[in-house]
Design goal:
Chain A: Keywords: ATP-binding, Nucleotide-binding, Translocase, Transport. The structure holds 2 protein chains of 2 kinds. Helices cover 32% and strands 24% of the residues of chain A. Chain A is of the alpha/beta class. In chain A, the strands form 3 sheets. In chain A, strands 6-7-8-3-9-10 form a 6-stranded mixed β-sheet, sandwiched between helices. The radius of gyration of chain A is 21 Å and the shape is globular. Helices cover 68% and strands 0% of the residues of chain B. The chains are: A alpha/beta, B mainly alpha. Chains A and B meet through α3, β6, α4, α5 and α6 of A and α9 and α10 of B.
Chain lengths: 310, 375
Amino acid sequence: MRSDGSGTGGTPPKTPRTAGGPRLARAARGLRLVSAARPAPPPAPAPGDVLAEAAGLHVRLGGREVLRGVDVTARAGEVLALVGPNGAGKSTLLAALAADLRAAEGVVRLHGRPARYWSAAELALRRAVLPQSAALSFPFTVEEVVRMGRAPWAHSPRDDDAAVGAAMAATEVTAFAARSFAALSGGERARVALARVLAQRAPLLLLDEPTAALDLRHQELVLRVCRERAHAGDAVVVVLHDLGLAAAYAHRVAILCAGRVAAHGRPAEVFTDGLLTEVYRQPVEVFPHPRTGAALITPKRDETASLTSA
Amino acid sequence: MTAVDRPAPEAPAGPSPGPAVDGTGTPPVRERAARGTPWLLTAGLLAALLVLVPVAAGLGAYPIPTGDVLASVAHRAGLGGTALDRVPESVLWDVRFPRIVLALLIGGSLGCAGALMQGVFGNPLAEPGVIGVSSGAAVGAVAAIALGLDFLGTFTVPAVAFVTGLATVLVVHATSRSGGRTEVVTLILTGIALNAFTGALTGLFLFFADSAAVSQIAFWQLGSLAQATWPKVLAVLPCAAAGLALAPLYARRLDLLSLGERPARHLGVDVERLRLVLVLVIALLTAAAVSVSGIIGFVGLVVPHLLRMAAGPGHRFLIPGSALGGAAVLLAADLAARTLAQPAELPLGVLTALLGSPFFLWLLRRTRRRQGGWA
């Protein structure tokens, strides 16, 4: 966190005692001297606004440098897909963008301010996070779980029912609203977890492998929801393993490899045979769909096919 | 991840293609079928207490008709009624009522502490007795009795019990969690280790205590309300009242904590602070209970569990409900302890352990079958 504040004009200084009124209040709140005033929800972002940004980001976990100088931006109105091989640092980057992890070097800015200057309550109104696995200690019902997503809005519960209902409809979990979360299948749990995240109605969505446990139909459904949220003005960052899904639904893709961004841009620009073959250490071919012309990405299987037939 | 008992059929694919995320066309959200259950249970528990208190006041080695009990209470409250003769009046107000009030306070504290602990550890098997926090508080209480500590007057024993109880919760908290959750096995093993250690410390104090203190400690260790007096009620009142008043404030955040530490933080919960406050509250409640009555186990385990099965796991009902339920259960158990083997008296801690341990065993098996602590 040392260099966190560098390079941003409006960040609070390290010694808040010398600072002005609002900064003093924020510092006092940080020290829990006064109870935090109810944080106000952020204004609706304009298309193209940078809602999350990693600049020169290094993150160390357990002594290992997992991210080594990553620059990405998540803009309002866009779906950004993070792809890459296992262990490339996708989830770590997502966690850093969620303000879960501290930067060893570089900075993570959320809504223009370094992540650590936001309180938990302020962050909850600004970004929603879908973890890789959904767990629950006690057998709450599906609707209760989705309703937990409304917790940041506890002081204005007016929209709760509408937000919960819409989120459950969008993820097709309304049919088992009254069932216990513990009695659901893996794919159903994943969709309920996503519904909770959608119900939070934060302008920045960070989704870690939302499609991992889902069938074909629901994979498409989830990414359609991502596109819809981006269209409505949110910024969506989604970790994906399926390059085809990324190519079809993401506005921009960042390919991570060994803690760095290997390529960054529109799917058509970055998904090339050579780059993917190199990053995944597996021959890959990219070709246009015969009917739509959309990029199709598959591993090269000629050799394996010939091996098995031989 | 957790094994799924019944892989549920996929939801029928609705005819609506790609429903919009915004609020228009929201389908009606189905209510929990048992939405009224918490209110019914609260009313039931209150009614049970209203019946139990006069009955418990009347029953015993010196029976007092319930009508007389009510008359005496009304008299003292200035609502008419009549005072009783000297002996029954004294039995009622100097023996029975302090004991009843103490049973209510301690039962409420134990039930509430159990519910909080299960929430904090994300594990339905957590309970002050099971994981050694009660014995930790007991070490302090025994030390205070054995060493004749008296620096805070009647509050000395609860205060010392609070300190050692707090130390024990902190040890459990620091050693048994990983990723915001506590595995059943880790929790139980931590409990075994701590119970052994605190038991040894208690034994050490017992070894150095004089014989009067030894008999006092030995009796106290069995868990009993037999020595209830108004000063003792007053001694536990601050701890218990503070704990019981603070606990419900954290209900909503405990619900969120069941998602795990990170998701709770993503929803705006200051998780570190929440845990710290709740550990303090648990230590307050446990110290209140243990310092006067010794170790009374399983109330904090059984009561929240039954309530969770009946009304769902939401902490907004579970925390006050467990306090009410714990009060009712302990009052009933104490009534049984002092009337079943008349004129002798069963130790209350022995009675609750006799009834609670099989329940705990059943719970362990059930939890293990479902893997990972899903209740």
